[in-house]
Design goal:
Layout (H helix, E strand, L loop, with lengths): L1 H13 L10 H14 L7 E2 L5 E9 L15 E7 L4 H11 L9 E9 L2 E6 L6 H8 L6 E7 L10 H40 L4
Parallel strand pairs: 2-6
Antiparallel strand pairs: 1-2, 2-3, 4-5, 4-6
Length: 205
């Protein structure tokens, strides 16, 4: 049940489809201005006259089996300067090139990690999505949305970070408690019916 629930959480996040093509130039301009006002680390976005904007994203390296790469790179936060036209596939290639990783980009995937109401959601992005657009819509706060680079094909639970696994355990505990309470209510109601039946049977006729 926990696995099914976890997958449901992931599917909920995946339903948030990218609406890049539905934003007008005025809407993009408004969002960029709002984003820049909220920036605290000077990593602002720049909007060009053609509607394309550039900015920065931070990507956490979380590789279970780190390939040949610069010492200390795995686990660190990396900042990339990209444009709104750059896709997830291009971002992965840029990260691998930056750290001189010779393995195929097909072995890696970019995830977005969302934090909502003390819960952690993870979603693997498709190669066609635009990370800078997701950053723009979510705002600059990395505690609300962050990006993670992981191996593409790894075990089911290995794909999750420690906070995500802890969140799944809390969900499991909650489900277990709800099931126990439902079971107790059913048995209590059944006991009352039996006691009523016994009481009627023992009444003098």
């Amino acid at each position: 049940m926990l696995i099914a629930f976890a997958k449901e959480r992931l599917l909920d996040v995946e339903k948030e489809k990218e609406t890049y093509n539905y934003l007008s130039k005025e809407e993009i301009k408004e969002k960029v201005q709002k984003y820049n006002l909220a920036v605290t680390d000077k990593l602002k976005m720049t909007l060009n006259s053609n509607g394309i904007y550039t900015g920065f994203i931070k990507v956490q390296m979380e590789l279970c089996k780190p390939p040949q790469m610069s010492p200390g790179s795995n686990g660190c936060m990396n900042t990339l300067h990209i444009s709104s036209t750059n896709t997830v596939g291009e971002v992965i290639e840029a990260l691998l090139k930056k750290f001189l990783v010779t393995e195929s980009p097909a072995k890696f995937a970019l995830y977005k990690r969302c934090h909502r109401e003390d819960q952690v959601y993870a979603c693997k992005l498709s190669d066609r999505e635009h990370p800078l657009y997701l950053r723009l819509v979510a705002g600059p706060r990395t505690d609300l949305l962050s990006f993670v680079l992981r191996e593409h094909e790894i075990g089911e639970w290995e794909a999750f970070s420690l906070p995500e696994l802890q969140n799944f355990l809390r969900i499991l505990d909650k489900e277990e408690d709800e099931q126990l309470q439902n079971l107790k209510r059913c048995y209590t109601a059944y006991r009352h019916k039996l006691e009523e039946a016994l009481g009627e049977a023992w009444k003098p006729g």
